[in-house]
Design a protein that fits this description.
The chain is an all-alpha fold. About 80% of the residues lie in helices and about 0% in strands. A hairpin with a 4-residue loop joins strand 1 and strand 2. Helix 9 packs across helix 11.
Length: about 325
């Protein structure tokens, strides 16, 4: 197990280094002078020189890269001129709502998707299975922003169960202000969980050890819950880790719909104002989150299935 863990961590470090290189050259590949673009072409020579110094663009390329890695390791990114504040400080103020939204959405996706997948697998091609598959197909074709608006209209404006905008901290505040956007993201991810887990369950249910469990007279629900579900969750964990990027992208839209002050809305504002330093830091943060989620999924799969560890050798 230790060898497998070291291999996966080493591979993740290599991927992260490639991500760091890509985000570093992002600002250098922008057509024209990025400082002039950020300042709107109206900066004086002194202001442009000061901006280039703050962004370390007046140094040799290798020195810039070393400073970029050093600042990234300590959490001190560049300077956001459009916000007149350090990028790291700005992201630190905004990352809490987005992280809470993503975690909440993943929990809802599992709470909704796993039971539905089990119900569908218990009676394949039955009426309940057909209803669940039809519902997931309908939801898969539904835009997230439209669903968010409909949930806000029904549960926010009509029933007044939840607020339709804003964010509050704490468990109570998160449950009150993030339920509608988290449900919007969670339902989209639950669709993928249901389809993936149902297919895995149906495949596992054809295995010999499942036939042996049935021959002992075990109930079908116990066979699925105790024996089949553990092996079937492997593919679902992979899907969840891959879709972290989808969840991060979903926050960009939903934070605008529900007026949540997170990194998604910060990214959209940075794109509008061409704040390349903020875009650079957010791209690196999003990529690192996907890499970390993939690493956690791989290690979890190895802990659940010894065959993965043996294959890694």
């Amino acid at each position: 197990m230790l060898t497998y863990v070291v291999q996966r961590i080493a591979l993740s470090i290599v991927v992260l280094f490639g991500l760091v290189v890509a985000t570093f050259f992002m600002i250098h590949l922008v057509p024209g002078d990025p400082v002039s673009i950020v300042l709107g072409g109206r900066g004086s020579p002194a202001a442009i020189a000061d901006a280039r110094h703050r962004l370390d663009l007046d140094r040799p390329l290798l020195t810039q890269f070393w400073l970029y890695i050093s600042h990234m390791a300590t959490g001190h990114f560049s300077y956001a001129f459009t916000l007149s504040a350090p990028v790291g400080e700005t992201i630190g103020q905004r990352i809490g709502p987005s992280a809470a939204l993503i975690i909440y959405a993943m929990l809802l996706a599992m709470l909704i998707g796993i039971p539905l997948a089990i119900f569908a697998a218990l009676r394949p091609n039955g009426w309940l299975d057909n209803v669940i598959r039809l519902g997931t197909t309908f939801k898969f074709a539904m835009p997230a922003f439209w669903l968010g608006l409909m949930l806000a209209l029904v549960f926010g404006l009509a029933l007044k169960w939840f607020p339709v905008s804003g964010y509050s901290g704490g468990v109570g505040g998160i449950l009150r202000t993030l339920t509608l956007p988290a449900l919007t993201l969670g339902l989209a991810l639950a669709t993928v969980v249901v389809r993936t887990l149902r297919s895995s369950l149906l495949e596992v249910m054809q295995s010999d050890y499942i036939d042996a469990a049935r021959s002992r007279g075990l109930r079908e629900t116990r066979i699925i819950g105790k024996h089949a579900l553990r092996n079937s969750l492997m593919g679902t964990l992979t899907i969840l880790s891959v879709n972290v990027g989808f969840l991060i992208g979903g926050t960009v839209v939903l934070e605008q719909v529900f007026q949540i002050p997170g990194v998604g809305s910060l990214l959209l504002d940075a794109v509008k104002q061409r704040d390349y330093a903020t875009i650079q830091a957010l791209a690196l943060l999003a990529g690192a989150a996907v890499v970390f989620a993939s690493l956690v999924a791989d290690l979890t799969q190895a802990a659940l299935d010894p065959r993965i560890r043996l294959a890694g050798r």
